[in-house]
Design a protein that fits this description.
single chain; alpha+beta; 4 helices; about 240 residues; 2 domains; 9 strands; about 25% helix
Amino acid sequence: MTLAKYKTKRRFNETPEPEGKVAKAKKQKTFVIQRHDASHLHYDFRLEAEGVLKSWAVPKGPSLNPADKRLAMMVEDHPVSYGTFEGVIPEGNYGAGFVDVWDHGTYEPINEKSEVITEKEFLANLKKGSLKFRMKGRKLKGEFALVKMHGRGENTWLLIKHRDEYAMDEYDAEDYAKKSSVKKSAEKKAAREAKKSPLKKVTVKKAIKKASVKKTAAKKVATKKTAATAVKKKR
């Protein structure tokens, strides 16, 4: 297993994304879902296996409603280190836009009887086009399935929630991704800075921190002005 396709799509002297490498196998497998506000908003659904993150782009985001069969397009494997990536991919680069972690945790590969299976069995199921797994995240919990749609292209899958104690009748991933005005302004500023200096690694977290500091300072100035005005009126 290599990350050749991932690396050929990126210019690491311009993007803050990690170059990464194939990780050592470990017993506990992680997952991450990243909200990617690129040319088209989508969610990147990633499951750790074979030392990489098996990845699918889910346009409408994951759902806890079993009735929602979400389209999931399988994309190139990503390095495990990508699981913590948040930041701005500069204009002119593959996937340009904002990336932040929407949910993360661990997962267990399972069979039809909800029994935990080995990674080898899980990879065999991946080749067959039918995966089942139990998620232990902050937002996504319980059993899910990824099923390949035959006759719809090699990379076309469906992400489906199994009906269990975590299932919900209505669910919209965007309802759990609301952003504060500070974060929105920080992202816009980060995008402007990234466009001016594509070699400069501008992250959303740093931009948010700067924006928060400026907002606090502005509040202090406004408070002082209000106090000064009140004193003048009294005089």
